[in-house]
Amino acid sequence: MNANEILDVIEEIFPNAKCELHHESPFQLLVAVVLSAQTTDESVNKVTPALFKAYPTSKEMARASISNIEPYIRRIGLYRNKARSISALSKDLEAKFNGVVPSSYKDLMSLAGVGRKTANVVRSVAFDIPSFAVDTHVDRVSKRLGLAKPYDSVEKVEEKLKRKIDRDRWNQGHHDFIFFGRYLCTARHPQCQKCPFTSFCRKDKLEAYKQKAAQK
DNA sequence: ATCCCGAGGG
DNA sequence: CCCTCTGGAT
């Protein structure tokens, strides 16, 4: 089964895969994605309503002190780094881009706390530019399904997925993999009974590789 | 390679 | 108790 066929099957199981981070503007999406690092989006959605009510745009966020931002996001973890990031990011957005979220990798990744993965999500969801963000779910699922090697970096995984999947399916395919990884092919106790791909799954090989890499 | 870090699930 | 959650900067 090739990558496009795998997507066909996943879309039968999860017909409504989409971005689940609540936001009302590209700026709010950008902040929500930064907050989502190592955190479930469900947790992010619990804190963003109050945060965005207090600071709806980069203008208000840039004026807030970090110590005023922290209480809003403390519950999601990594909160000091994240408060510092969204403060600096908002100030930069005002100063360099007049508060308008840019769409190029170069401009997006020049912002505090924004790396390749966050830039890809913003490009895809806010601007509908074909992109393929590789996060923990996409990385794990791609390697279990044999679309990437266990030792591939996230950059290499992104490159391979973009090569193997039709360009007009990149944005939807990203969310398909996320839903598959979040709700079926989970990290800890995947529901292999419900999985249509067990005949070629490489979960065991991936875990063996990780074991080996963890020693030393 | 390590650190940041709280919440929720098993 | 232990693991995982749409990472990024140092």
TrEMBL record:
Binding site for [4Fe-4S] cluster: 185, 192, 195, 201
SMART domains according to UniProt: ENDO3c (SM00478)
Domain HhH-GPD, chain residue ranges per copy: 35-183
Keyword Iron-sulfur found: yes
Catalytic reaction annotation: 2'-deoxyribonucleotide-(2'-deoxyribose 5'-phosphate)-2'-deoxyribonucleotide-DNA = a 3'-end 2'-deoxyribonucleotide-(2,3-dehydro-2,3-deoxyribose 5'-phosphate)-DNA + a 5'-end 5'-phospho-2'-deoxyribonucleoside-DNA + H(+)
Superkingdom assignment: Bacteria
Top class in the EC scheme: lyase
Cofactor entry: [4Fe-4S] cluster
Record-level GO BP terms: base-excision repair, AP site formation
Cofactor-binding details, from the entry: Binds 1 [4Fe-4S] cluster.
Keyword field: 4Fe-4S, DNA damage, DNA repair, DNA-binding, Endonuclease, Glycosidase, Hydrolase, Iron, Iron-sulfur, Lyase, Metal-binding, Nuclease
Residues in the signal sequence: none
Enzyme Commission designation: 4.2.99.18
Gene Ontology molecular function: 4 iron, 4 sulfur cluster binding; class I DNA-(apurinic or apyrimidinic site) endonuclease activity; DNA binding; DNA N-glycosylase activity; metal ion binding
Gene3D superfamilies: Helix-hairpin-Helix base-excision DNA repair enzymes (C-terminal), Hypothetical protein, domain 2
Membership in a protein family: Belongs to the Nth/MutY family.
Function: DNA repair enzyme that has both DNA N-glycosylase activity and AP-lyase activity. The DNA N-glycosylase activity releases various damaged pyrimidines from DNA by cleaving the N-glycosidic bond, leaving an AP (apurinic/apyrimidinic) site. The AP-lyase activity cleaves the phosphodiester bond 3' to the AP site by a beta-elimination, leaving a 3'-terminal unsaturated sugar and a product with a terminal 5'-phosphate.
Entries under HAMAP family matching the protein: Nth (MF_00942)
PANTHER family: A/G-SPECIFIC ADENINE GLYCOSYLASE/ENDONUCLEASE III, ENDONUCLEASE III
The name this protein goes by in its record: Endonuclease III
Protein species of origin: Faecalicoccus pleomorphus
